[in-house]
Amino acid sequence: MSLPKLARLPSARLLTSVLPHHQLLLPPLSPLTIPCRTKIQRDYRRPGQPIENKYPLNFNFSKGIEGIKKHFTLMKDEFFGRWVGPEGKPLIEHILEQNLVIWEFRGPESLEQWTVSSDQEIGGQSEAHLKMGRNDNTCFLHGKLSSTIPRDGETRYSGYCNMRSKTPKASFDRKKHYDWSSFNTLHLRVRGDGRPWMINIATETYFSHQKDDIYNYFLYTRGGPYWQEVKIPFSKFFLSHRGRIQDSQHAIWLDKVNTIGFTLGDKADGHFQLEVDFVAVSKDYAHTEEFAYEMYERNPKRERIE
Amino acid sequence: MKCARCLLQLQGLWLQGLRLQGLQLQGLRLQGLQLQGLQLQGLQGQSARSAAQRGALLQSSSQPHMLRNTQHQVIRRFHRSPINDKNQPIPAEFIDEDDNKKDKSLVIHDDLFEQVARETKTKATFNKVVEVFIKQDVRRRGHVEFIYAALQKMPEFGVERDLAVYNKLLDVFPKEVFVPRNFIQIMFNHYPRQQECGVQLLEQMEGYGIMPDVDTKVLLIQIFGVKGHPVRKYQRILYWFPKFKHTNPYPIPKNLPEDPVDLARFSLARIADDRDAKVTVYQLPCTDITESGEEITLPHVVGIQSPSQMELLAQHNPSRPVFVEGPFPLWLRDKCVYYYVLRADPVPPEEKVEEPYDPERSLAYPLQLDLDLDRDLGDEESFDVEDLDEGAVFAMCMTSQGDQAVLNQWVSGLQQNNPILGQVPTLFRLEQGPRELQGAHKTKSDHQHRPDPQTQREEEEDEVSVEEEPRRSQEMKQ
């Protein structure tokens, strides 16, 4: 189901109003030439474009040494972290903690954890750039939206940009997940320009057809010089697949969260900006809702009136 | 039975059946929801034969035999080819009086809309074009392409947010033809092109945020039946739209004020985030004619300041400068307005003065407790993040022309309520285009360390390339 439009504004439409039937920013569609067991994360490849063949690899000695150092350090940390407690934190902290800051933008190296994309991947003309904000304390996502549709005959909508976190990696580039099962609220401190954004959370899935399952909710910015604290309980996130809201809804499973992202696609051409101070999760004891949407039967048995 | 008499009887019954169905459909649309959707489907699912039977019953009450039904559709002869229709006289109402639209050649559907380009493009002309198409052909040949073209042309005619127009477009579909009659047809996507067209129409409605009507539902069920994709999409719209209608904590009204002063009031109140903030209009937009006969348009200057901002400004150290920064963008739906900010740079930690809480501020409970209590790990409610120290914001303003003279006007207006502005040096950090909300760039932070009398002495000729310009406070002193 497509997401209705925002602001005047019904909701979830934001994504499909903007997404073509391609999906933006996916962990890569595995090409046919490489076996399906691959877990290498590549940049987005537009369907129909040839797969870039990186083999044979260019061997660089110094990079190799750095890589070895990095991976072995990570492995050592993991090994010794286990003795301290789960995820390297003492057990009591892991159980009792109420607030956990996942991403804070203090220094240019924090930008490495994020990927920025826009509809230029499908041939559009929007731009998006990410840089450090004031005094290197915040991240600043800015750019220009343009909803001119790329003329390839199949794209219907255009004009979006997206900032997505990279999947966390353990040593030797193994996939790691965030475990937010002890939290129930997402807490952000942002400063926007009045545009409505959408927050996407992607979790780890089992079946291949669930790959583009994303849980979304809106981030309405007020605009202005003051910071805005946004608290969104995870029970409000609804499920969508490839930008279309699904009929059968369920609450997000927080034990294996992979990425979080911010998308803008509100059909208003022009420049935009968003400053993010930190992204954190917290446990709100006052929030007891499990899921905000009803889980109705899709095709209920009806009495046939003869 | 192939005798001529039997064929004639069948023809007669067929015509009456169609007329009856026409009456039924007409009744539905006029009376709205007198028939529930299910019943409607039941009625229409019947074949022409059963309708003809009922037609025989109602023969006494029916009107005298006509060649068309109440929908003014020409009923073609059952067993004759359309070529013979040339011999029949064309009824007067089918001759178009409007020369623009009469075209006997093969017409691409876009052209119908393009022909209207010579006249004004309004809702009335759009409706007229749709009606022309409907009247042209009872079988509505090419209705899918026509509807796609119409959907594309809607923004040009300005009717893309009009529900009645969408319902009229849905009316272009022939009724009942696409309703699946058994489970196999339902399974196999009966008339997929038409269903896709219906879905696209609904999707365009959804894209503009238009909530469909009960008329839409009735039309969709008449055209596609309850088991098709369009009705399913309609149900989804009806489920999700109300859920997300009130999710915006800072809602923007559907019709924004046109007057720039009112718009400035609304947006300043929005960004001030303080209900006690007061909006002051320092200057209304007007056009003056000077002695030399030139026209000068004075821009509007609307400012806002809240009591807490006034307090902060009063506590500001007069030796440190304040900055007028801007323009910053603020988006209201699809409209961007710009505002300017009066702010100071953050106070370095050595100069920060922590004022003790005034115990008389709150008599109900103490604001400061000297107890030695520790909070449990599970009760830790703050985030482990260092607080951002950004300079205090003292006031905001909006104006259409953001040059230094106008902003000077604003600051002098502010000075009436905040006398400290007379002593504090005010520097301008303006940029030509829309600016990022962040304040100090790395280069600007150097200016802070310059001693203050020097900034007052500095003239623009020294700093042609730099945006900072000192304000002539001497003129403004009262």
Folded structure, characterized:
The complex is a heterodimer of chains A (306) and B (478). With 306 residues, chain A is an alpha+beta fold. Helix content of chain A is 12%, strand content 28%. In chain A, the strands form 2 sheets. Chain A has a 7-stranded antiparallel sheet with strand order 2-5-12-7-8-10-11. In chain A, strands 1, 3, 4, 6, 9 and 13 form a 6-stranded antiparallel sheet that branches. The longest helix of chain A has 24 residues, at 61-84. Chain A is globular, with a radius of gyration of 21 Å. Chain A starts with 12 loop residues before the first helix and ends in a 24-residue tail after the last strand. Mean pLDDT of chain A is 83; it is low at 1-39. In chain B, a hairpin with a 5-residue loop joins β2 (286-289) and β3. In chain B, 40% of the residues lie in helices and 11% in strands. Chain B is an alpha+beta fold and 478 residues long. The longest helix of chain B is centred in the N-terminal third of the chain and has 28 residues, at 4-31. Chain B is built from 17 helices and 9 strands. The radius of gyration of chain B is 36 Å and the shape is elongated. Chain B has helices at 4-31, 37-45, 48-57, 109-115, 123-136, 143-157, 163-170, 183-187, 192-207, 214-224, 229-244, 260-272, 307-314, 404-415, 442-448, 452-457, 473-476, and strands at 278-283, 286-289, 295-298, 301-305, 322-332, 335-344, 393-399, 426-430, 469-470. In chain B, α1 (4-31) crosses α3 and α6 (143-157) runs parallel beside α9. The interface between A and B is large, with 61 and 62 residues.
Looking at this protein, list some descriptive labels.
heterodimer, A: 306 residues, disordered N terminus, B: alpha+beta, two-stranded antiparallel sheet, 17 helices, 9 strands, 40% helix, elongated
Largest sheet, spatial ordering of strands of chain A = 2-5-12-7-8-10-11
Q: Given the structure, what is the number of helices of chain B? A: 17
Shape of chain A: globular
Main sheet makeup of chain B = 7 strands, mixed
Helices and strands of chain B, in order, run as HHHHHHHHHHHHEEEEHEEEHEHHEH
Structural class of chain A comes to alpha+beta
Oligomer: heterodimer
Largest sheet of chain A: 7 strands, antiparallel
